[in-house]
Amino acid sequence: RAKHLGKNQSQFYTDTLHEEVIKKGKIEHDLSQAIERNQLELYYQPLLRPANLSLGKIEALLRWNHPDLGVLQPKAFLPLAEELGYMCEIGNWVIENTCKQIKHWLEQPQLNQNRFTISVNLSAIQLQDDSFINFVEAAIKHYQIPANCLEFEITEHTLIGAPESAGVLLSKLSNLNVYIALDDFGTGFSSFDHLRLFPIDVMKIDSTFLVGVGENEKAEKLLSAIVQLAKTLELEVVVEGIETEAQAKFCSQLPIDYYQGFHFYEPLSLDKFLEIQWGK
Ligand code: C2E
Ligand code: MG
Ligand code: MG
Ligand code: MG
Questions:
Q1: Is 122 exposed, middle or buried (0-12, 13-18, 19+ CB in 10 A)?
Q2: Would residue 59 be called left, alpha or beta, if left means φ above 0 and alpha means ψ between -120 and 50 degrees?
Q3: Where are the alpha helices (DSSP H) in 85-216?
Q4: Burial level of 123, CB count in 10 A (0-12/13-18/19+)?
Q5: Which of the two residues, 18 and 246, has the higher pLDDT score?
Q6: Which of 83, 156, 205, 240 is the best mutation target for the ligand 1 pocket, counting ligand atoms within 8 Å of the beta carbon and taking the most?
Q7: Which among 154, 152, 148 is positioned nearest to 116, based on CA atoms?
Q8: Which tens digit of pLDDT belongs to each residue from 103-127?
Q9: What protein residues have CB closer than 5 angstroms to ion ligand 4?
Q10: Is the Cβ atom of 82 under 6 angstroms away from ligand 1?
Q11: In this structure, how many other beta carbons lie within 10 angstroms of the beta carbon of residue 88?
Q12: What is the ipTM of this complex?
């Protein structure tokens, strides 16, 4: 009987593994045409100001509307895009469309928002691309947007591959006057080094530091200490991954500049975003 069960189970794993392999093959195959077929889409997650929970900044997050597989999250296709050499093209698409959106929003008088920032995530591969900085500069010029409406998020993992060249590039970016955020802060091995070596404006404290906040003192003290550290370094502080009322309540005692998390908003399609933020 046990043997029988074992066989069913291995059959189950073989089936799901098989499906995964087919899915991966499909993603690999279709990725090359995702841009030209207009299947990529930016979702927008609002970051809120603690004082009145109003819209502060926005993070642009990539989705792929696959014709058969539905809406794919970045982790389902970005690693493959990197592996297959599509990351720069996709990354440029993200930057260009973000600039276009900024331009569009700045032109809406009813938004009554004289300055706002949209952040985009960068992959390590983009930081190694010689034409990257020129592309960014050209996009800002083309859409005639203030550079400080644009923020680039890099993770500690992004910086591990090529710290020296990345440093040069980040300085050039910084000189353009865009903001630079260190994303997922605290999950890498050299968080403190990165703060010292690179021109960072914003610290995005990783959601793992929210675990236990609102319930246990140790977690709360750790979060407080990191926020204090960021403030000492005169960084803007974003806390990512606020999911509960208790976490939000604890955060309200700390000098945090922006809240981000499902407790407030998930990443929203453009239509949803407009409906919720500026619709009424
Ligand atoms: P990230 O930059 O740290 O983005 C935040 C991720 O956390 C998003 O996942 C967001 O949906 C999720 N999130 C926000 N609030 C909460 C919360 O309260 N709880 C939980 N559990 N999650 C929350 P998403 O959109 O799946 O993106 C995952 C990662 O993919 C991003 O992490 C970023 O590293 C990468 N990514 C997304 N868009 C791009 C892009 O255009 N280019 C590059 N290179 N990477 C991207
Ligand atoms: Mg990010
Ligand atoms: Mg993050
Ligand atoms: Mg990240």
A1: buried
A2: beta
A3: 87-106, 124-127, 132-143, 156-160, 163-176, 191-197
A4: buried
A5: 246
A6: 240
A7: 148
A8: 999 888 766 555 689 999 999 899 9
A9: 155, 183-184
A10: no
A11: 18
A12: 0.97
In the block, residue with structure tokens 């569009």? 104
pLDDT above 70 for 251: yes
**Which tokens is 103 given?**
């331009």
Ligand 1 contact via 99 beta carbon (within 6 Å)? no
Question: How far away, in angstroms, is 153 Cα from ligand 2 center?
Answer: 6
Handedness of CA 205, 211, 214, 216 (dihedral sign): negative
For the Cβ of 267 lying below 6 angstroms from any atom of ligand 1, the answer is: yes
Does any ligand 1 atom lie closer than 6 A to the CB of residue 243? yes
pLDDT of residue 111: 64
Output the six-digit token pair for 190.
Answer: 């050299």
Query: Which residues have C-beta under 5 Å from ligand 3, the single-atom ion?
Result: 183-184, 240
d(CA 115, CA 63): 26
Nearest partner of 87 among 132, 133, 44, judged by Cα: 132
Chain centroid to CA 91: 12
